[in-house]
Specification:
The chain is an alpha/beta fold.
Length: about 200
Amino acid sequence: MQKLTIAVDCDDVIVPTASLIVDHYNKTYGTSVELKNLYSYDLKVWGVDDDATAVARVDEYLMSDEYQSALPFVEAIDALRTLSKQHDLHIITGRRDFLATATEKMLDQYFPDLFQSVQYTNFFSDKPRSKSEVCQALQVDLLIDDHLHHAKVVADCGIRVLLFGDYPWNTSSDLPALIERVKDWPAVVKLLTTS
């Protein structure tokens, strides 16, 4: 297999973010947000009158020690070590800049020297960067991401995408040609390594 430049998303691909946010939010605010509602703009789901309040509540948790010390998926550690032996890896995450220190600390601890760069697209901000622009700038051959929106945008510019995991926010019965669904990290390794 040829050497590829692979971009890897962070949240819900390397670290189990969605479930942590939902569990914390429900415990703290007495709501019953479900994983399927994570990207919902229905304010009733979040128990607030304006989205700024919901965002501030989530941001407060994202800045907490509890969240910032979340452990990555064990399978991700093994898989990314294996992939780094054959391919060049980059992180392209929707995380905002305020999580850079915590993100890089986690990467240094669990994935030392595996990634060529870490790119923050600030997806939930006023001025996000498109993952497709970042992938093109880095000349990425393949993106591994859990979010259907990012997968489609990147595939639209001719880059292959592995749509990671079986999450409520990435279900689709009709995926574009360059997007392939992968269940988990062992499936990714099987696709992208030679024995």
